[in-house]
Write a structure and sequence with these properties.
Length: 242
């Protein structure tokens, strides 16, 4: 599909808090506008399935970012337990290996079929953006982070996952090497008008959209804005106008 004909990426807002009240207060006014909400370990460890239910009640898809990484049998069990919570997306680490990723996909399919519910899409996290080339060398990985991300994305594709989480700087290389089938879910987004904070390798929403991101995950530029709804509207407009 020509770039100009691609639909704009969907926008998921990261609710990085351990408080269900704070998460719900943030999410409620945004629910009309955004495409979904991401909750991660901070929220899920503190609030568990009941907290997740309260966010789900806003009626938007949930991205449950647990970044699972364990032996295949254990990840399979965790995915099985997660399916009944109804997330649209669930993450595992690609570095957990092909067998582990296959087990995650198989568990999602089997449990969803058993429950008669839609299955979560399994996303593989490639190289954490907090790791640089030196960190990889310490793990005896000689590749640059971007090359390693493409390699892990290739393994993830071969394991049958639905998509990968990658930095915006890696979108082009992954699309070029692996084609359009993998869904690319991209954090590390900073509008030109927002503070970069701890994100170092970021792109603006419009740049990431043009590069071919399918989903943008954005936290603080929205959640810490004086007016989160206005910030989200501005980002949506920027994505759609690109
Ligand atoms: O606030 P900010 O926009 O930086 O939030 C980005 C979200 O994406 C956070 O929930 C963060 O944990 C997550 N994330 C990231 N980089 C990755 C993977 C996930 O920033 N490589």
């Amino acid at each position: 599909m020509a770039d100009s004909a691609r639909r704009p990426p969907r926008l998921y807002v990261a609710l990085d808090t351990s408080s269900v009240g704070q998460a719900a207060d943030l999410a409620r006014p945004l629910a009309e506008l955004v495409d979904g909400f991401k909750v991660g370990l901070e929220f899920f460890v503190a609030q568990g399935p009941s907290g997740l239910r309260q966010i789900s009640m806003l009626g938007k898809p949930i991205f449950l970012d647990l970044k699972l990484h364990d032996i295949p049998n254990t990840v399979s069990g965790a995915v099985t337990s997660a399916v009944s919570r109804g997330p649209a997306y669930l993450t595992v680490h690609a570095s957990g290996g092909v067998a582990m990723m296959r087990a995650a996909v198989a568990a999602a399919k089997a449990e969803a079929a058993k429950l008669g519910s839609p299955r979560p899409k399994i996303l593989a996290v490639t190289v954490l953006t907090s790791l640089d080339a030196n960190d990889l060398v310490l793990q005896s990985i000689a590749a640059e982070p971007a090359a390693q991300a493409v390699k892990l994305a290739a393994l993830a594709k071969s394991a049958g996952v639905d998509g990968v989480v990658c930095s915006p700087k890696e979108i082009a290389a992954i699309k070029h090497t692996l084609g359009p089938e993998l869904e690319l879910v991209v954090p590390g987004i900073r509008p030109a008008w927002a503070a970069a904070r701890d994100q170092k390798r970021f792109m603006t929403p419009a740049e990431a959209a043009t590069a071919g991101a399918d989903v943008l995950v954005i936290g603080r530029p929205i959640t810490e804005a004086d007016n989160p709804l206005e910030a989200a509207k501005r980002i949506k407009a920027e994505i759609e106008a690109r």
